[in-house]
Amino acid sequence: MDRKSRRLMMVAAPCLILLAAAGLLAQHGHVAGAQEKSAVEQTKLSKATPILLQYQGRLTDPGTGLPVADGSYTMVLRLYGEPSGGKSLWAEAKDVPVRDGLFSTVLGDTTPLDQGLFNGSSLWLAVKVGADEEAAPRQQVLPVAYALSLIPGSAVQAKSAKAALTIGNSGTGPALQTSGSIDV
User: Fold this and answer.
1) Structural domain containing residue 134
2) What is the rounded distance in angstroms from the CA atom of residue 173 to the CA atom of residue 43?
3) Which residues pair with 104 in a beta bridge?
4) How many independent structural domains does the chain possess?
5) In a domain, 118, yes or no
6) What is the pLDDT of residues 13-25, one digit of tens each?
7) What is the C-alpha separation between 120 and 143, in angstroms, rounded?
8) What is the pLDDT of residue 48?
9) 180 belongs to a structural domain
């Protein structure tokens, strides 16, 4: 099937299932009640939890609007820092099963996603199916609501008798590293 007989229609923007912040918390072994966990559990938590993005879409025939035939389609998924043009910041290729035109895949399970990609800068996902050109337009990667409190420049605030933020490290490194001026 050539480019003119197939088109990629995105059903929804990428959903983050393990956002960078969640990955960081798991990587550093600090979760609520972590002090009560055994050394074995701490070691399991401190092993790098990969950053993964869930992505779903729909492949249709542009002439009919009907779903493509069921099967496995080779897809190349790329992240860019711009909505068009520019150099790819990350890419992975994989065979993705498609049924009734619908597919679901996880970005980062074949080629690991770098934590540095999730620094508050905008990202766009491009998908290329088989020998076709990359689908246009690219889909902007959007954060989940709670993750917005973790982007650079955000503030953690609470109205509680408990601490608004607790930072800990059960390992040998510092719990917090800062640079620049600090207002306390």
Assistant:
1) 3-150
2) 15
3) 56
4) 1
5) yes
6) 333 333 333 333 3
7) 9
8) 58
9) no
Q: Which amino acid is at 91?
A: A
Is 37's pLDDT higher than 80? no
Report yes or no on 33 lying in a domain: yes
Nearest to 51 by CA among 32, 30, 74, 26: 26
**pLDDT 10s digits, 111-128:** 999 988 988 889 999 999
**Residue 43 backbone dihedrals phi, psi, to 5 degrees:** -65, -40
Here the tokens at position 136 are 């246009």
CATH number, residue 60: 2.60.40
Size of the chain in residues: 184
CA 165/CA 21 separation, integer angstroms? 14
3-class state of residue 95 by DSSP: strand
pTM of the model: 0.63
- Taking CA atoms, 132 is separated from 8, 97, 107, in Å, by 10, 17, 20
Instruction: For 145-158, write each residue's pLDDT tens digit.
Output: 777 777 667 777 78
Q: Is residue 128 part of a domain?
A: yes
pLDDT band at 71 (very low <50, low <70, confident <90, very high): very high
